[in-house]
User: Fold this.
Amino acid sequence: MKNAQLYKYSQEFFAVQNEEVHQICSDFEPNAIDTDYVYWLNFHNLQDRQSLELLCQKLQLDKLSIESIFQPLRRSKVEEYSNYLFFQIHTLRNNSATAAETEKLSFVVGKSFLLSFQDHQGLHFSDVRERIEKSKGKIRSQKSDFLLFRLLDALIDEIFVKTEEVSDQIDLIDAGIHSNMKSHLLREIETQKRELIELRKLIQPIKDLLAGLENMDHPLIDPSNKHYFKNLRNSCTSLLEDVDAHKQILESLSNLYYAAQGQRMNEIMKVLTVVSSIFIPLTFIVGVYGMNFKYMPELEYPYGYYTVVLVMILIGAGLLSYFIKRGWLKRD
Amino acid sequence: MKNAQLYKYSQEFFAVQNEEVHQICSDFEPNAIDTDYVYWLNFHNLQDRQSLELLCQKLQLDKLSIESIFQPLRRSKVEEYSNYLFFQIHTLRNNSATAAETEKLSFVVGKSFLLSFQDHQGLHFSDVRERIEKSKGKIRSQKSDFLLFRLLDALIDEIFVKTEEVSDQIDLIDAGIHSNMKSHLLREIETQKRELIELRKLIQPIKDLLAGLENMDHPLIDPSNKHYFKNLRNSCTSLLEDVDAHKQILESLSNLYYAAQGQRMNEIMKVLTVVSSIFIPLTFIVGVYGMNFKYMPELEYPYGYYTVVLVMILIGAGLLSYFIKRGWLKRD
Amino acid sequence: MKNAQLYKYSQEFFAVQNEEVHQICSDFEPNAIDTDYVYWLNFHNLQDRQSLELLCQKLQLDKLSIESIFQPLRRSKVEEYSNYLFFQIHTLRNNSATAAETEKLSFVVGKSFLLSFQDHQGLHFSDVRERIEKSKGKIRSQKSDFLLFRLLDALIDEIFVKTEEVSDQIDLIDAGIHSNMKSHLLREIETQKRELIELRKLIQPIKDLLAGLENMDHPLIDPSNKHYFKNLRNSCTSLLEDVDAHKQILESLSNLYYAAQGQRMNEIMKVLTVVSSIFIPLTFIVGVYGMNFKYMPELEYPYGYYTVVLVMILIGAGLLSYFIKRGWLKRD
Amino acid sequence: MKNAQLYKYSQEFFAVQNEEVHQICSDFEPNAIDTDYVYWLNFHNLQDRQSLELLCQKLQLDKLSIESIFQPLRRSKVEEYSNYLFFQIHTLRNNSATAAETEKLSFVVGKSFLLSFQDHQGLHFSDVRERIEKSKGKIRSQKSDFLLFRLLDALIDEIFVKTEEVSDQIDLIDAGIHSNMKSHLLREIETQKRELIELRKLIQPIKDLLAGLENMDHPLIDPSNKHYFKNLRNSCTSLLEDVDAHKQILESLSNLYYAAQGQRMNEIMKVLTVVSSIFIPLTFIVGVYGMNFKYMPELEYPYGYYTVVLVMILIGAGLLSYFIKRGWLKRD
Amino acid sequence: MKNAQLYKYSQEFFAVQNEEVHQICSDFEPNAIDTDYVYWLNFHNLQDRQSLELLCQKLQLDKLSIESIFQPLRRSKVEEYSNYLFFQIHTLRNNSATAAETEKLSFVVGKSFLLSFQDHQGLHFSDVRERIEKSKGKIRSQKSDFLLFRLLDALIDEIFVKTEEVSDQIDLIDAGIHSNMKSHLLREIETQKRELIELRKLIQPIKDLLAGLENMDHPLIDPSNKHYFKNLRNSCTSLLEDVDAHKQILESLSNLYYAAQGQRMNEIMKVLTVVSSIFIPLTFIVGVYGMNFKYMPELEYPYGYYTVVLVMILIGAGLLSYFIKRGWLKRD
Assistant:
């Protein structure tokens, strides 16, 4: 994959230029933009800062916006300018093992163009690209605001997929917790909880951004397209509800884990108690007749030994039946 | 049951056509609709996609809506079009063992018709059908928006019934927890908690949809009928409150479970401690006089043995009375 | 008590007719209503359905409303009709042991009349009746909306009393938990928690109903009386806050219970550990000199026995002082 | 302190009359009020009901308001009348040990007068009195609404002080929990939690009352003074946040308490386990050679005894080093 | 560092005067203010109260505002006056070890001047100073409201940094909890929780203040600058979300801690139980043959000893294999 791509499309014409950043930036000529087309420039990294800054200046972006593109992002941002809209959000990093690994995405939406800047090479938008190429849906007949919708939709879809991965993990844990009680399961539960916390932190700002877009009164956002952003916001709401529901299920599973831990402790203690309670008194008895007193008449009795053994059997049986009656010998 | 049903009714006339999907779809002629009637077409599965798509096209549904009917549903949806309303929600699957098993329902509400698409064969609407047939209530004198109200009402009723099933299960657990403390009870508690989590996920989107209907300003929704949707929304609110109350009761029951677990551990340990604390010191004493030293004057005393036995009885009785005094021998 | 009562009052005149349902229903003649009076008909059960339906029809109630009076109530309801208002709520059943036992109350508020239907015989409104009879407060100079306010006030007062009963129970538990730690206390705590859950379920719908009354724009509700309903709503808010505060106190008490349980376990284990740790090593020592080896020089020493006893005393005292130093012998 | 005080002040003149209730009530003549002054009558108890009722009637208060002054207060109240405002709230009782002990305060705010009724003698307002006497701040140049602000401010300050007392108690507990783990600490934690619950119940209604004052459109409340009430409401908000933060810290401390309890249990069990695991096997060995079989060749070996002792030392050392390696002998 | 600094800047000119409080206060002449400049006076302590009060009086500040500057701050404050705005907030104290150590900051924003009062010497604003000096960003071309934005931004950045410190601490704990289970980790967890509670208490009032600035309609706040304050408010929201997410992660970690504690207890008990259950019965057996009865035929058998040893080996091996089968000998 190259580091930058230019998609130029209208209803009649579609072109992808997959070139290096420098090339695309210097070739792009804002004055020569054909307003029948939408130009989408997607940059896969920010290494060639010089070329990118040049491009931004050609498009008359504000100095503050340009600076933001290259700085780490603390909070998602929506900024309106007269000639463009500027957004920044965090999103899941492609192929990342955990939701804690995110990357910054910056969008510049202008009249006939849309720039998107990724921190790292990654295929967030392959579905959108395919739609453009195959002309699926409405994307070829719409303006840059619709393209923005499609790109955000693609990002939310990625989060959906990640949420479902968590859901699958939870099912695995659930199966595990029913069959055995390994200690790593709790760690797994807590890991998934943290994934959900991270996902929540990703989704909330996107939802706020979408609310901002819905309420925005800017010529670049066609009012008749606002319901797309509303739909995306509903998706975010439903994602947040899913995340919360998953968190509750994990809570439930850790309860089961703790109870099973307590259960095992009970069983261990019962074994110890039953064994000790039977043999400690018996050991005392045999100890008595192990004493070396000169005058211990029982020792002289011919059936002394047998009597003691009998007594011990009776005591042992009595205690055992007591424990059986209290149900300590069957697992529950 | 056939795979599709057409109900045609007005104040004077009522007809049910219980036919295969293909037949109904090809017979239905939008231009020939008699506006004195409401036509309700209920499809029990989506297998004959071709016929259904044909029908939708005849009714001039948007391409996106048609596509949505056949795709899995991520979030509930309300979409307004000039000539129809389009809804999609999840609902409980008929005869399903758990609230986690849901199915997608799609509704298309037009001027004199209502289409409903179920993913699976199931009797969600037998009560509505009966009302139409027997002309109970207002349904025969009303338009498609009232029919929609009735259908949603039927779905909410199903959730009510499921919620009451959970409530009954909770009563069973409650009875169980008071009589004995089997470990499966906690599992049962957590199972019911998850049922409630799933029910909450079902109800919330329906409530949102109803709020959308209330605020909607569309010719197909008669303003004088809006209070029906408001009533349904109130039902959803009350259902959510029930779900939360049930969840708290389950919380309460798991507290009892844990406390009982701790209680049993205490009892087990008390048995062990009482037995050990009495017999271990006594065993030590008899051990002393089991030593083989040549010069142990006590061993020679004529009453040595009896003295030791007496001392041991006194020690045992003393310890026993100490434990009785501390209340360790009665269960609490 | 009879099954129905008719109160007819104005500023000059007050009459109670305490008769059977049938009698009152057939006697009541809507056309003959004297609009200087308010007629309040209170029915203590719904057994004579025929008479009651007749009365409702005479008052031109909607078919749906009439049906609702006789059906179980799932959710509280406010319905506006041009000639009357219709409410249904759940309330505490008179003399019920637990807040889970509720009954349905239905109200029909018309221009000069108010019907109230109780599911069971019970004295919810004796205070209101007394006010009318003794002409206390404003009730005799006001219309049916003020009577409604008084009736709802009486119901909320019943819930206040119930809440205070819970509060008293909590004080009892509190006293109990400080003096001893019986296992039934936790059960008692959980019982009271469930009472509070049930009370919350009762109060919330009444509060919603009162909000509905406040916002209602109906000729039967005099705007200058709306602050009465607002006051009642504030009472409900404060009741809900009380319920939540009580719930938190119960949470606090169960924490104390669990901690005490853990405390006792610690104490039990300390006894076991101290006894075992002192006597098990000593028993080992006496065991050594109980061995029957032919060549064990210590056994021959004249002071062997006394030396061993001395060593054991030293070991025992050492261990004991160690445990005392670690504070295991004093209760904390 | 006398039972009632009359403060009469304007910018030029200030007078305090510290007399008995009867005297003040009969002397006060509404028609003779000098509107250049504000008359503040503060009653320290409600015993002389007759005189107080007389005063209220002279001031043309509503019958319902008068009745409320003498009845226990269930919920805080704001009532607007054309000629006066009537408030009732709960506040901390002076010098009370716990926030659960509250008293009712009633305020009547008129054009040039303000009545305040305390249930019990107590110095809630000594700061306000001082301000009037010393003419600090704006109080002497303002009307009765500003006086009301000052009185409410004084009450909120009392709650601030109480909240800080709780905060200090929490610091003490914190110090205690770090140095030792006495069981009374948990009780102390729970006591402070309940203080916070009670404080929350006090603050919330005052906040609601202040919101009511802010939104009120009454000639007695000068709009330019509303920001005073807004400031007080912000104080209440911040108090509620403090209360919640304190509650979370207490939660944190009880977690530490429980963990320490578990920690001690672990340590107790480790001592028991180490001692038992070393000496029980050894005791078995010496038991073996204490058996009285006729043919036990080891007993005849000249070095049998020394061999066994050596073996036991090796076993003991092995077990000990195993436990040391597993870290059971150092405290953590 | 001196105790006060005067920054005077416009687009053309920038001057810092780093002088003692007295000097600056007496030199500053409000009438001589050049409105092309913004004068920012930053005071690093409040010790020279007299001079500061003099300055405030020269600037015609309200008596109440002046008093507030020198009093401890209970709640953050925004006050509008015709000629200036007055703010007070708590912020992190510079170089403080814990978020619980805060200091009060007061701001007076006038037409061409801004006063800031710190309780203690500390470098909250070095970044802003640098921007002014190096003329970075817009600060030199803007009025006092923009300077206020920059100062608040600097404070919020400090809180961001503190929050990230907590985040780093959490990562350390996390690493610690995975490798070993020292008891101080829980204390560390609870310490960080309290940091977060304190941070929340800092952030919430600043967020409220910013909301107040956004809604304020005052000539000193340029409407076109309001989006700066909105951006800061969004930062606060995102900070609060971070704080909550961190708190949940700490919750998760304490769960792991408790589970590990329980796990260790289980392991300790298993060791005790396995050792006791094997050796206590065996000790009983050897005790039997240590009895001194005259008639014990087994003792006379030539192979008695070997038989008993064999039996004991069998019993021991049986019990051991039983425990191995139940999985008690492998750690989990």
Summary: The two ends of chain E are 60 Å apart (CA to CA). Chain E has nine helices and seven strands.
